[in-house]
């Protein structure tokens, strides 16, 4: 799903993957696209930073803020009148191209607009969407409604039914203020937000603050350096115009820096020394402007028939909101403490995704659609009616039938691009990346249903990307999260591996004829999966009526041990995995009841042990012989006994914040034994032990951490305050709680699980670095991906010694996405096109980079697929490799859905086109 905030000064686009990850699209490595458009002499429109650069030479051809002219028919750029919809379409084309580059197609999208825009202005936007080739189903959402969604659903701030939220959107070009009310439950079960009052100032924004600061510095320069200031104030030559632009850029950068520091330098063209701007000066100069905005907020709140005390919250968005004076004056003048984020430019675009009800499913291309060369070159579809923009949005039409998969052509050594969901690693991604989802560390193998494509999505080329595929997950942590409708089976939000030396090479042997196992009913495209545990293979497949058939077979001989239909029927099944004492199947969320069915079968005979309905936003983890339910509706954590028909063994209430919030994260503790065996390409083990450390760590909404015994629910370590937010990346491994701090200072914090005392700080990231994919990669080592800002091209894989402190190594690896430890080495999947995987050795050196996908066999061996994993029958080459030795070719698989495959140290179990297959690749 794609959310787009088409701003006056900048445009932001956020992309939500099917596994729930939300990331900004990057334009020239940055999450902000300048909303500038430049028309060259040939009539071509350039946007973003390119337009700004070209405008240095020919300012008359540049329009820096086309959205401000929404009421005009055309704008004069150079010697030609350009229709305003074409200017906006040029920006939307740039967003679409980046979305296609990131996801392989243009996902279903939501675009925001100011609350004050009526039908005529929305018609301009829908016309621009059509000119840019976006589908007519593209939804429109008022900006404050999107912000309210983010406030309520991402920040988890309470906005009860009937309560109101004020949104103060202070952008680069304008100030927009709105009051939004929760109107009650919508058909999808969530709150429905509507704008009840709006206003703003078109002549107040970040640019006006910049101008005031330039004038302030100009007074100083006029006295000390009159010649230099005259050239900046009234440029004549092209060089002087460029110098003026650079000076303004430096002033803007200093303004942003002063939100973090007390003083910032400003370089002055033509001078050897810089002038300095202090935060006191910033606030002195900008106070009159900010007070105008505060006064406007008061007017809008009064127009809604409210006082500031009546508000459930005051949410600051827009880049200029980060100026500290803004929040301080709003608080002092209105008496309401505002909420402002570190990156206030992003919430509206992400909130737009949440405002799409229901979110359309990810799509696979049915046929290619070319990207227009210019806004006026072609128009795809019919403009969406502006009336489609209401308090929320209209829902998307149902998806059309899936199109056949086309094998991409090209160099045989490369694999086709693949979405993380398509590789069957959606759960693993969530677990491995330390996001808000986690999954079971039992050796569970899970597979979601292939996602059906809609209509004619916009593609980058005539070669469709692989269709979304089924994942295999497992673990001491299974989280089910509604926002992504995903189950993550993993080690408490992370993939962990060990530093075990001495893993010898497996005795690899070529693939022979597969042992074939018949399904209970003919296989369809709706759902199928495989799992391996304790010498048995388990296969699942759903028929057209949703009846799930499960088959167990001996892994060595292929002999069928039992066949079962006791899992029953569901509209759609999503996950299938094993525990030591159960085979688990989980359905997708029922659209009527908004819950899932979780069914446990006896692995010995296939009889149903028990089942439980789980709310769509609840989470499940498995450790020891306990299924741990994170019950969000009741704000509690519940222990269910796996072998006693789900009997409730214990119940613990969630810690609450001072505002009464009960958001929580629960992770399971892991050891090296959890990661000694085979794991998926996302690092999720297929069959790790579950009784080596039966502790849970719960992070509360009050930022506390406590340790619970999963078997009894007892609090074995007293709560410690101020440890982490529920959204922070945390793992519990080898007796430690490891936190990736997400504040202004990015640090790794390490706590002793036995006492939760004062933390050690083994690593502090440089300024402007992001820490993601926190992964235990040894008993005393963690690995993670570190980027500059959100630019994946700057990614480094970093290894930190959590016992002795300090980074052991840091290796540049652009687009690094998933980390899978293999002994002392680390497999790194890169989000590139074509997909590729690299192996970093114990010292962080790149041992090799190959196309395709790779998973761990044990602490010293790797299984490599020559192509990206797919849910359609395919013939990937297979090789086994002992780390440090040459790869051993094993042969090619024939007609298997490689994304369904599960493996151990000698067997490979996969779903084929019409049946199930078992291979042996090592003795």
UniProtKB/TrEMBL annotation:
Residues 360-418 are annotated as: Disordered. GO terms for molecular function: ATP binding; ATP-dependent protein folding chaperone. Gene3D superfamilies: 3.30.420.40, Actin, Chain A, domain 4 (3.90.640.10), YVTN repeat-like/Quinoprotein amine dehydrogenase (2.130.10.10). Residues 366-395 have a biased composition (Low complexity). This is Putative pyrroloquinoline-quinone binding quinoprotein. Keywords: ATP-binding, Chaperone, Nucleotide-binding, Stress response. Pfam families: HSP70 (PF00012). It comes from the Bacteria. Belongs to the heat shock protein 70 family. InterPro entries: ATPase_NBD, Heat_shock_70_CS, Hsp_70_fam, Quinoprotein_ADH-like_sf, WD40/YVTN_repeat-like_dom_sf.
């Amino acid at each position: 799903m794609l959310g787009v905030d088409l701003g006056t000064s900048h445009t932001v686009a956020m992309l939500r993957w099917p596994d729930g990850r939300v990331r900004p699209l990057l334009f020239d490595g940055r999450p902000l696209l300048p909303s500038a458009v430049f028309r060259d002499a040939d009539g071509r429109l350039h946007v973003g930073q390119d337009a700004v650069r070209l405008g240095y030479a020919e300012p008359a051809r540049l329009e820096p803020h086309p959205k401000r002219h929404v009421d005009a028919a055309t704008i004069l750029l150079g010697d030609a009148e350009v229709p305003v919809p074409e200017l906006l379409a040029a920006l939307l084309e740039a967003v679409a191209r980046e979305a296609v580059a990131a996801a392989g197609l243009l996902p279903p999208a939501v675009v925001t607009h100011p609350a004050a825009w009526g039908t005529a202005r929305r018609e301009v936007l829908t016309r621009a969407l059509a000119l840019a080739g976006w589908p007519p189903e593209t939804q429109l959402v008022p900006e404050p409604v999107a912000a309210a969604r983010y406030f309520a659903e991402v920040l988890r701030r309470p906005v009860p039914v009937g309560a109101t939220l004020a949104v103060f959107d202070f952008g680069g070009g304008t100030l927009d203020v709105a009051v939004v009310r929760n109107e009650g439950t919508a058909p999808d079960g969530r709150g429905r937000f509507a704008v009840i009052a709006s206003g703003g100032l078109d002549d107040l924004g970040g640019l006006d603050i910049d101008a005031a600061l330039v004038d302030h510095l100009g007074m100083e320069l006029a006295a000390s350096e009159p010649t230099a200031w005259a050239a900046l104030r009234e440029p004549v030559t092209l060089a002087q115009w460029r110098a003026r632009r650079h000076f303004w850029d430096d002033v803007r950068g200093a303004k942003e820096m002063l939100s973090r520091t007390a003083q910032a330098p400003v370089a002055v063209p033509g001078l050897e020394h810089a002038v300095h701007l202090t935060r006191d000066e910033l606030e002195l100069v900008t106070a009159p402007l900010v007070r105008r905005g505060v006064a406007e907020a008061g007017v809008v709140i009064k127009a809604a028939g409210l006082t500031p005390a009546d508000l459930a919250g005051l949410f600051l968005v827009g880049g200029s909101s980060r100026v500290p004076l803004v929040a301080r004056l709003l608080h002092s003048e209105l008496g309401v403490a505002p909420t402002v984020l570190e990156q206030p430019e992003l919430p509206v675009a992400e909130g737009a995704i949440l405002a799409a009800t229901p979110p359309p499913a990810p799509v696979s291309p049915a046929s290619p659609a070319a990207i227009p060369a210019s806004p006026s070159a072609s128009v795809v579809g019919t403009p969406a009616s502006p009336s489609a923009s209401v308090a929320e949005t209209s829902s998307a039409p149902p998806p059309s039938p899936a199109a056949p998969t086309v094998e991409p052509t090209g160099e045989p050594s490369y694999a086709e691009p693949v979405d993380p969901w398509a590789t069957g690693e959606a759960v693993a991604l969530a677990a491995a990346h330390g996001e808000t989802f986690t999954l079971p560390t039992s050796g569970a193998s899970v597979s979601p249903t292939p996602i059906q494509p809609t209509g004619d999505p916009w593609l980058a080329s005539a070669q469709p990307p692989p269709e979304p595929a089924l994942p295999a997950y497992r673990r001491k942590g299974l989280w089910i999260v509604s926002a992504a409708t995903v189950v993550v089976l993993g080690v408490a939000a992370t993939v962990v591996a060990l530093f075990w030396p001495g893993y010898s090479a497996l005795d690899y042997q070529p693939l022979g004829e597969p042992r074939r196992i018949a399904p209970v009913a003919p296989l369809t495209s709706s759902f199928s999966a495989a799992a391996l545990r304790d010498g048995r293979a388990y296969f699942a497949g759903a028929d057209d009526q949703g009846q799930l058939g499960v088959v167990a077979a001996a892994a060595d001989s292929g002999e069928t041990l039992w066949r079962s239909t006791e899992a029953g029927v569901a509209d759609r099944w999503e996950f299938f995995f094993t525990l030591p004492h159960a085979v688990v199947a989980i359905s997708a969320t029922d659209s009527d009841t908004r819950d899932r069915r979780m069914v446990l079968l006896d692995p010995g005979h296939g009889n149903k042990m028990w089942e439980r309905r789980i709310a769509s936003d609840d989470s499940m983890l498995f450790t020891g012989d306990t299924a741990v339910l994170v019950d969000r509706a009741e704000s509690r954590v519940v222990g269910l006994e796996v072998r006693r028909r789900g009997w409730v063994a214990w119940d613990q209430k969630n810690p609450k914040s001072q505002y009464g919030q009960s958001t929580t994260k629960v992770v399971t503790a892991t050891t090296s034994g959890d990661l000694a065996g085979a794991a998926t390409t996302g690092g999720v083990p297929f069959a790790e032990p579950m009784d080596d450390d039966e502790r849970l760590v719960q992070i509360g909404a009050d930022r506390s951490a406590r340790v619970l015994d999963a078997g009894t629910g007892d609090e074995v370590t007293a709560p410690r305050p101020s440890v982490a937010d529920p959204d922070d990346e945390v793992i519990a491994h080898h007796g430690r709680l490891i936190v990736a701090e997400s504040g202004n200072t990015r640090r790794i914090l390490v706590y002793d699980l036995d006492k939760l005392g004062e933390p050690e700080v083994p690593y502090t990231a440089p300024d402007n670095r992001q820490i993601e994919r926190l992964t235990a990669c040894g008993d005393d080592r963690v690995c993670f991906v570190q980027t500059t800002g959100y630019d994946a091209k700057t990614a480094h894989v970093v290894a930190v010694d959590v016992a002795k402190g300090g980074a052991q190594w840091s290796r540049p690896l652009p687009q690094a996405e998933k980390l899978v430890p293999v002994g002392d080495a680390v497999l790194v999947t890169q989000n590139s096109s074509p997909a590729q995987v690299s192996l970093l050795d114990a010292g962080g050196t790149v041992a090799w980079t190959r196309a395709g996908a790779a998973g761990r066999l044990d602490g010293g061996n790797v299984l490599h697929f020559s192509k990206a994993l797919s849910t359609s029958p395919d013939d990937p080459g297979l090789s086994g490799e002992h780390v440090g030795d040459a790869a051993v070719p094993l042969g090619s698989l024939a007609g298997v859905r490689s994304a369904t495959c599960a493996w151990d140290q000698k067997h490979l179990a996969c779903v084929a086109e019409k049946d199930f297959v078992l291979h042996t690749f090592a003795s």
